[in-house]
């Protein structure tokens, strides 16, 4: 979770990212995929270089000086668009160097999602990320292998690539591989967060629905309409089946949980009888 100053810095950096990618203030001949991939590579490089990390995030140094460091380091190594975004990002007030690294990584991911949106593939990418998260979470051995720090990053990402090669969009693959390579979370959770980020890029919220059985199209539409009304935003449903619920559904949106299952009602009744 970002501190207040880092949240403000990230919001400003997002504006710069969108401005550059839309071609209103910088070169428009570099596509969003290239910028996204370069930003992810830059975040990895900065993360692994302590002196550079501090030089770019040191709040005691003038913003112009931090931006100049970024310019010097990146000139000739990345596109002008990426260099402009990183320089602007470094000039902002970050609470810590770790927040700066994570901010650059977040910008890279959002650039790739903007590319998917422009290509009309955002729904497919979101769905692929959700399904991949379910596959990883549903296979304990796979998740352990992907999160095993005794294995090299190259080994872990090669395992993931073997699993999804040719089965998902290239943007989905790039996002998932980066998440597995860089996250401290369980890989399934990290990929799940990417699916939420994909939904947010389209102005939607994600509702994780656990149902005792398959929901019909009419039931899905009715539930989505009700949640859209509650949250005043379009809602994407991600549905899992759990027969142990006996009936009904459990819905989670962000930190909120709505338990409308029969097992949930039985548990409530039991607590009331104690």
Could you characterize the architecture of this molecule?
This protein is α+β, with helices and mostly antiparallel strands and 274 residues long. It has 3 domains: 115 residues; 80 residues; 69 residues, no CATH class. It is 65% helix and 8% strand. It contains 13 helices and 4 strands. A 4-stranded mixed beta sheet has the order 2-1-3-4. Helix 12 links the parallel strand 1 and strand 2. The two termini are 38 Å apart. About 2% of the residues have low confidence. Belongs to the ATPase delta chain family. GO terms for molecular function: proton-transporting ATP synthase activity, rotational mechanism. It is a peripheral membrane protein. One of its GO terms (cellular component) is proton-transporting ATP synthase complex. It is found in: Cell membrane; Membrane.
Percentage of residues assigned to helices: 55-70%
The CA-CA distance between the termini, in Å, is 38 Å
For the biggest sheet, the summary is: 4 strands, mixed
Tally of separate domains: 3
Q: Helix/strand/pairing class, anyone? A: alpha+beta
Overall shape: elongated
Average pLDDT across residues? 89
Poorly predicted regions? 24-28
* Sequence of strands across the biggest β-sheet: 2-1-3-4
DSSP strand tally: 4
Give the SSE string: HHHHHHHHHHHEHEEEH
Which radius of gyration do the C-alpha atoms yield?
A: 21 Å
Strand content: 5-15%
